């Protein structure tokens, strides 16, 4: 058996072990959903920040008059 065949067989067996194992799949799905929720919250926060900053810059505050 060549070295390539040994490495290929070992990696195939290793990947089959993880491919056939369903443990942790719920955790992976939860992590993906939490990631999507965090990205969505960051987008909403960015839009709100831009709206608030733009509204604050448009407020005309008169300069105080000298006594």
What features would you highlight for this structure?
mainly alpha; rod-shaped
Number of strands: 0
Name the shape in a single word.
rod-shaped
- Compute the separation of the termini in Å: 97 Å
Q: Cα-atom Rg, whole angstroms?
A: 28 Å
**How many distinct helices?**
2
> Which structural class should the secondary elements be placed in?
mainly alpha
Summarize the structure in words.
This protein is mostly helical. The chain has one domain (3-55). It has two helices and no strands. The protein has helices spanning 3-19, 25-57. It is rod-shaped and about 95 Å long. The mean pLDDT is 85.
Summarize the structure.
By secondary structure, this protein is mainly α. The protein has helices at residues 3-19, 25-57.
Secondary-structure map with pairings?
Layout: H1 3-19, H2 25-57
């Amino acid at each position: 058996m060549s070295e390539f065949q040994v490495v290929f067989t070992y990696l195939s067996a290793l990947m089959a072990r993880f491919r056939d194992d369903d443990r942790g799949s719920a955790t992976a799905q939860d992590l993906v959903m939490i990631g999507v929720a965090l990205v969505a919250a960051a987008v909403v926060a960015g839009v709100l920040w831009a709206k608030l900053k733009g509204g604050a810059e448009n407020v005309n505050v008169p300069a105080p008059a000298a006594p």
